[in-house]
Design goal:
Distance between the termini: 48 Å
CATH architecture: Orthogonal Bundle
Number of domains: 1
Oligomer: single chain
CATH class: Mainly Alpha
CATH topology: Multidrug-efflux Transporter Regulator, Chain: A, Domain 2
Radius of gyration: 16 Å
Structural class: alpha+beta
């Protein structure tokens, strides 16, 4: 199981290091401590990305439907 540093995970998600750290602190992505450093698995990062992408698609679909209902 490949482990990533927080910076590598942030780069993979195309987010800032501090945003990723917030996700870890909020337990949105599981991690483990190696000494004083947080490590995340590539699998956990990709699972978060899949869930986040699905939420974004659903929100976009809802907005499109609302726009059609309003005649936009």
């Amino acid at each position: 199981m490949a482990e990533l540093t927080t910076q590598q995970a942030a780069d993979l998600l195309n987010v800032s290091h501090s945003f990723l750290t917030g996700l870890l602190d909020a337990q949105r992505i599981p991690y483990r401590m190696v000494g004083k450093e947080q490590r995340v698995t590539a699998e956990a990062v990709m699972e978060y990305k899949r869930r986040d992408d699905a939420k974004r698609r659903a929100a976009a679909r809802e907005l499109a439907e609302l726009g059609q209902e309003l005649g936009a």
